[in-house]
Amino acid sequence: MAKTIPERKGPSALGVDAELARRLLHDMLLIRRFEEKAAEAYALGKVGGFLHLYIGEEAVAVGATSVLRADDYAISAYRDHGHCLAKGADPRRVMAELFGRRDGLSKGKGGSMHLFDRSVNFLGGHAIVGAHLPLAAGAAFAIKYEARDAVVVCYFGDGAVPQGEFHESLNLAALWKLPVIYLCENNRYAMGTSTDRALAQTEIWKFGQTYGIPSEKVDGMDVLAIREVVGRAVARTRRDKTPSLIEADTYRFRGHSMRDPAGAVYRTKEEVEREKQRDPIVMLRERALKAGILTEADVRAIEKDVNDRIDEAVAFADASPEPPDEELFTDIYKED
Amino acid sequence: MAVMTYREALNLALREEMRRDPRVFVMGEEVGLYEGAYKVTQGLLKEFGPARVVDTPIAESGFTGLGIGAAMLGLRPVVEMMTFNFALLALDQIVNSAAKMCYMSGGQYNVPLVIRGPGGPAAQLAAQHSQSMETYFYHVPGLKVVRPTTPMDAKGLLKSAIRDDNPVIFIEAETLYPVKGEVPEDPDFVIPLGQAIVRREGTDVTVIAYMGMMYRSMEAADELAKEGISVELVDPRTLRPMDVDTIIGSVRKTHRVVVVEAGAGFAGMGSEISAFVTEHAFDDLDAPVERVTGANAPMPYARNLEKLKTPSKDKIAAAIRRVCNANGS
Ligand SMILES: Cc1ncc(C[n+]2csc(CCOP(=O)(O)OP(=O)(O)O)c2C)c(N)n1
Ligand SMILES: [Mg+2]
Hints:
The complex is a heterodimer.
Chain A: H1 18-43, H2 58-65, E1 73-76, H3 81-87, H4 91-98, E2 122-125, H5 132-145, E3 152-157, H6 164-175, E4 180-186, E5 189-190, E6 193-194, H7 206-210, E7 215-219, H8 223-240, E8 244-249, H9 269-276, H10 280-290, H11 296-319
Parallel strand pairs in A: 1-2, 1-3, 3-4, 4-8, 7-8
Antiparallel strand pairs in A: 5-6
Chain B: E1 2-5, H1 6-20, E2 24-28, H2 44-48, E3 53-55, H3 60-72, E4 76-80, H4 91-98, H5 101-104, E5 114-118, H6 126-129, H7 135-138, E6 144-146, H8 151-163, E7 168-172, E8 180-183, E9 197-200, E10 205-208, H9 212-226, E11 231-235, E12 238-240, H10 244-254, E13 257-264, H11 269-281, E14 290-294, H12 303-309, H13 313-325
Parallel strand pairs in B: 2-3, 2-4, 4-5, 5-7, 6-7, 10-11, 10-13, 13-14
Antiparallel strand pairs in B: 1-8, 6-12, 9-11
Bound molecules: thiamine diphosphate and magnesium ion.
């Protein structure tokens, strides 16, 4: 079932128009610049705790979200800035959340690992590895229960695959035919543990076959390939109410978190440099330019727009006050 | 009022709430076709069908997490733990997902979920199937924890739990399922969470207990009445949030306190109650608070040892006598 996308050349062969190319490039760049600023803010002590950057993996969230409807849902682990922003969250409120400020998505009470945005159906960032996979099945269960035709996309890392909840979720989703797309971002490492040191079966997409779930592997650095593969899965899941499993072959350019700045002990510099040649943003930009879909001026305009929005986000977060002391005790329970 | 068993009261509460609200559904191992390992869900599959009475495979963490996700989207799942011992496999989902979702999301997502099933000491089921489980849950901000002692409470509190917008841990008892009592048939009858009840009025000593320990304390109180000791029995019913006012009110009246619990005493319910009684009503106390707790040992299988593990009526009565004879003032 694994498909390789044949190499195609030429403007029409790219299969996207200028508008879409612009949007994909814009959304990936927005995540990239957002995180570069977040890293700066971390160094300045404005962001604390764990900060996990998605840099290098932007094509997965942007490609997948581009084939979703607004009423579809997404849920993710703790490396969640990209998924949340791609789903449509306001970068200003995301940055304010990272800064621990009142105007953050969760009033500063969640932080980087727990971004939630109900207004765009983003069901959260969850920081216990594997634990959000059953939640995704539950959201899909609710959709089916109410006979709606939305779907859920659940992003998770290769590190969640050896967890029991991965297998429990796949089994339940297949058994009950739940409209959920499990989208594994296989960046080859769970912290410092490479997949071959953690998994008896490193071809993660193959686990889907055991459960009778249509499964594919995709180049996670190629945003157009992701659109195609996730698009196919979303259409099938929506139509047939069956889950899908997709393994995106991707790579994180930075360390596991800001506390692992270089990611140097468990992988070689050469490997990192080699993978950076697959930078999803550079790849799309070059292909779009070469195909004549976008011009250099278009790219500059996108970059300017993104930079402005990120500057605004930082200014907004800086200006937002800390949450008032009373917030310590609000939202523990929903009051009726 | 009708006389029914604790089990029937729970069943009626489930039926009424499922009739009332189509978002309520029941999920768990053997809840449908098998009609419940303890028959609490008897007849539900027939009345509501398989979409709302969902048999799950054995995957506590998976189906509990699934219930939480469904609740985030507005359904109101009632997840049955075949017994609460197995809830430990779902402890991460309960503590890290259900309890904290509302807080982490700044109030954007809440989890209207009930997790119910039997827990506590049962007859000769040994260490893994016979233990008090509430301690694992009432420590956690974001959870509510209920232990219903009577059939009436079982119905009224389960209905409130299902209507609550937050995750509620509802721990029944296998040993109480056949107990009979009066239960209002009115489908609008509910008992609010967080309200203790004075089960027996008295003047000399306040005994705080719930579930099987309440029935045992009742027997001890009957016996002591003959000796001229008047026992007031308070049942917290909801352990979190705890109705501190009712308990303190009783302490101010009797000035003496005994807490009885089936679980091992270390860091148990008795520790918490004696701490807040001391904080709120130290000057009212005429004697130190006494705790009568389960032994600090796993539950043994042998009948004689099992008897030693859980507080007996005699042990409870002895503690009450000690407290009443103490002269601290
Ligand atoms: C259950 C659990 N165990 C351990 C951790 C600590 N931890 C945080 S991230 C991580 C690695 C996860 O890797 P992966 O799922 O591949 O995601 P990635 O960081 O590569 O995006 C670990 C072990 C955790 N958060 N949860
Ligand atoms: Mg990984």
